Amino acid sequence: MNIYVLVKRVPDTESKIRIDHEKNVIIEEGLNFILSPYDEYGVEEALRIKEAQGGKVTVISAGTDATNMILKKCLAMGADEAVLIKDETLETYDGFRTAKILAAAFKNKFTDYDLLLFGKQSVGADNMQIPSMIAELLDLPQVNVVTKLDIKDREGTAHREIEGAVEKVKFTLPAVVSAQKGLNEPRYETLKGIMMAKRKEIPVLTLQDLGIDENELTPQVEMIKLESPPERKAGKVIEGEPEEAAKQIVEFLQKEAKVI
Description:
- The protein is an alpha/beta fold.
- Helix content is 28%, strand content 26%.
- It has helices spanning 37-53, 68-77, 95-108, 130-138, 191-199, 242-255, and strands at 2-6, 9-11, 19-20, 25-26, 33-35, 56-63, 81-86, 115-119, 142-152, 155-162, 165-172, 175-179, 204-205.
- Strand 9 (142-152) and strand 10 (155-162) form a beta hairpin.
């Protein structure tokens, strides 16, 4: 079984984000980047399927040379191959642009796919669009936000959480599946895996290699303004006897918070 996992390099959620307000971009200097956490679930699930049924796991990401660091992490976790699709364009927050690039890769280069695994969303843009877009562009069945996955022969069964219930979906391969937290517990890289990943060469494909005309990738989304969320106001400390404190709390909830 040929399993491909699509991954993305994103800012560490614990990092302090700074914004270049003139260019409407995040300042990357001094910023720590990681493999998007939801993508880790996708990589782990691919490795588990391979261990149980055999096959090959390939991870693919679109981005600059800096993206190699997350591809190396995936190799260290146990992926067999990694491929970088070279794209120097800064983050556009346009899922359709990225989906067209990745879909072209599977139409023109990696046509032997059985299963395409994604994280349900990146923690950078949080658009949660690309898995569905690629499924549509490739005319594949899809199941998103999956918390349990079983693959047998050419059929799959996925469980996904919906409001007040768990939905069970059956599908045939090839298919697109996106992973939700709870699907598995991603493994850590081993020392052996890290050493092997360092020595492994990562092939690079250009947009031209995929038969893509840059004019086809004009962003459909225009970034008007990028800014940090407002700082939280300092909390209030209420002192005094319980009866008086209770009155102050009620007054605050009525007049300031306006929740009662």
